[in-house]
Amino acid sequence: MRPNLRTALAALTVAAVAGGGLLLPAGTAAAADAPAPKGDFNGDGFSDVVVGAPNAKVGEVKAAGQVVVLYGSAGGVTASKRQLLSQESPGIPDTAEAYEGFGGVSAAGDFDGDGFCDLAVTAHHENEGAGLLTVVWGSKGGLTDGVTLEDPDKLASPGIQNRRTWGGKLAVGDFDGDGKDELVVAASTNATANSTLYTFRNIARSGRQAAPVKTPLGFRLTHDLEGLASGDVDGDGRDDLVLAGAVSGLNHYVPGSPTGLLPGAEKALGAGDEQAVGDINGDGYGDVVIGNRSAGKGGQILVAYGSAAGPSATPAVIDQNTPGVPGASEQGDEFGVSLALGDIDGDGYQDLAVGSYGESLDPVSLAGGVHVFRGSASGLVTGTGVQAVNRTSPGVPGDARQAEQFGIAVTMTDANKDGKADLIVGSSDADGGNSGSVTYLPSNGAKVAAPGSRLVLPGEAGLAATAGLGFGSRFAD
What we know:
- There is one protein chain.
- The protein has about 475 residues and is mostly beta strands.
- The protein is about 0% helix and about 35% strand.
- The protein has one helix spanning about 125-130, and strands at about 5-10, 15, 20-25, 30-35, 50-55, 65-70, 80-85, 100-110, 120-125, 130-135, 145-150, 170-175, 180-185, 195-200, 215, 230, 240-245, 250-255, 265-270, 275-280, 285-290, 300-305, 315-320, 335-340, 350-355, 370-375, 385-390, 405-415, 420-425, 435-440, 455.
- About 55% of the residues are buried.
């Protein structure tokens, strides 16, 4: 998401908003010229973290799904400053029904141009798998109310070989260079037809929405949730997309233009099902990182550096056998299952976090881990200084536990407004007895897991801790 003008809060108090499970600041707003960070829903200048919990109960309704928003503060991410959203929250369209999975996919951006970040949320099992997409509006009191974005091309007779999940893939960016956030919605159609992207601009808070711009693709997207990322790869001031295709698992680069995303201009990239875009070497071009957890012995990442011509055709390949990278590639590590970019040390180069949720910490199997690579003028640094982060690392709260899958999801954001990115790590807990967790690891200016690190459990965030909940397995894009 590109920066937008925001309103700053002149005074802060803590308020509880009935019906929404909300604990966050309120106050009077004053105009400010400084751009707000990504995911700042209440305009206080702190980045917020969105945790999707599609398997969460709503009251006694199983797997209706909820979204937990952990609001940033001077102390970073805490469970005490949070908001729970579901389809039973006031102003949210529809009603909570069993196994609909609200929160399965989400993405943040200022969709109505009011200076507050908004949140697009999908209930991916709604309507027998057809999906339901909702936009919830940001405000000085946090996220509130919402509208439904309808699928303009609903399938008349969906089935196993003829189906798509509307809102199953979301991305936010400024694809036409007008300085405003746009929401891209993607969905596959069936086993043979190519896919289409739908770009929503200036989403209205009420009334009839303007029809989205359609971009037909020359390839099919996967049926998996997510699988796309945005950023300015060619340095033209407009965001581009990287999407995972269904054929051969190849990713594709689709450039932006003055009219938006360009149909027919896609460029095939390497295989993988996780993507991230950011300027690792500080040359003004976004670099494409693709995670392929199934490649080689234990997974790998590809780094295709950006240029005026788009991403490089000869990406760098990195795995746990690359010299300088802690550990070793082992079957089932799933290195590359999650990716996040952010400037941890404040040097102007984007650093990279790579999750490997299948990593074992002898004798604890599937404990999980994350590698943090530094960016530099020469690109991603692998020979030295790679930080291995897991439950046994200094400063990381909690203990290593079998099948915790620490690192199944990662995100980076400046939650404490110190000008440096913090790392947030999700754990799904696939052991059948636990419910997942979110671990906040702030930067100390050189690396993560500084003082102030904390573990957030589902019960602390207001969710019923049930086996299979997977709290921490999904973050908003």
